[in-house]
Design goal:
The chain is α+β, with helices and mostly antiparallel strands and 277 residues long. The protein folds into two domains: 2-155, Orthogonal Bundle (hpI Integrase, Chain A), CATH 1.10.443; 167-271, no CATH class. The protein is 34% helix and 20% strand. It has ten helices and eleven strands. The protein has helices at residues 2-14, 16-28, 32-36, 86-96, 109-122, 134-142, 148-155, 180-190, 232-236, 266-271; strands at 41-44, 49-52, 69-73, 79-83, 167-170, 173-175, 196-201, 208-212, 221-230, 246-251, 262-265. The longest helix has 14 residues, at 109-122.
């Protein structure tokens, strides 16, 4: 535990990219290929030349980031949703800096293998020449019985800090949402004032069915809602527009949002004088 902790800290001092890659491997058991993708070329030992090849693992892609984690693709198109805490998801979003598509980490497997050893040496690991990225996967395998939050706490440089949104003047909710779950809760609190009656919440798309009484309090219209923290997440998840009537989000940032779908921005509702204690 102490060796891996020191290794991660040294990576953090030098490169946010390297730190995130190694952290994802140590804390969630991802392989180096699953994080950065297979190398696009191979070495022919007989001819002693490099040759181009099709990578069979794409690596982590920006468009596969979800509110609840990240979709990871392995060999032969196998896939899994890895649940990642908001703190690390936020760090990934900061790293991609507004990019909407493509690989999160533009680095090869061989390069990751090269950078690990200097960090291991700086961390004071005696057999640092033998350290490879696979060692972080092995570390995760030995600690799978440990709760993810505990593993993150023990490997973090500082005590984990709970993140909250700005304070809002809404009875029943102290802080503004910082994720999709917060949007669902806030909409539930405001739904009566907004003249919606919630029929059901579900796990599959779209998230909810409601009766919309905004036009006529005596004749409601049945509509389907998809909750998002920011509206552009709807596009990134490639939801079919024709199966949803309203996107309910905290902040509307989708510049090319189709006109046929309504967007209800709760941030604007909270700021307005319509909803107050």
């Amino acid at each position: 535990m102490d060796q891996v902790k020191s290794l991660l800290w040294k990576a953090e001092e030098h490169s946010p990219r390297d730190y995130l890659i190694l952290k994802l491997m140590a804390m969630f058991g991802l392989s180096v290929g699953e994080v950065v993708g297979s190398d696009p070329r191979g070495w022919n030992k007989e001819t002693k030349t490099w040759f181009a090849k099709e990578p069979d693992i794409p690596g982590l892609m920006i468009e596969n980031l979800r509110e609840s984690g990240i979709q990871v693709y392995g060999k032969k198109d196998t896939e899994k949703l890895v649940s990642i805490p908001d703190e690390i998801l936020a760090a990934l979003h900061r790293f991609i800096e507004g990019r909407e598509k493509g690989k999160i980490f533009d680095i090869s497997v061989s390069r990751v293998e090269q950078v690990v050893r200097p960090y291991a040496k700086e961390a004071g690991i005696s057999d640092w020449r033998q350290v490879t990225p696979n060692a972080l996967q092995d570390f995760f395998g030995k600690h799978q019985g440990m709760l993810p939050d505990e593993l993150i706490r023990r490997l973090s440089r500082v005590k984990h800090k709970e993140i909250v949104g700005s304070k809002i003047d809404i009875p029943g909710l102290t802080y503004a949402p910082i994720n999709e779950q917060g949007v669902v809760l806030l909409f539930g609190i405001l739904s009566h004032d907004l003249k919606f009656s919630v029929e059901r919440i579900r796990q599959e798309y779209p998230d909810a069915s409601v009766i919309d009484y905004r036009d006529d309090p005596n004749r409601g219209i049945k509509k389907d809602i998809e909750f998002e923290f920011i509206s552009s997440n709807f596009s990134k998840q490639k939801h079919p527009v024709d199966k949803c009537d309203i996107i309910v989000c905290w902040e509307h940032d989708w510049k090319n949002c189709p006109k046929e779908i309504e967007v209800l921005e709760l941030k604007g509702v909270v700021k307005s004088s319509r909803i107050r204690a």
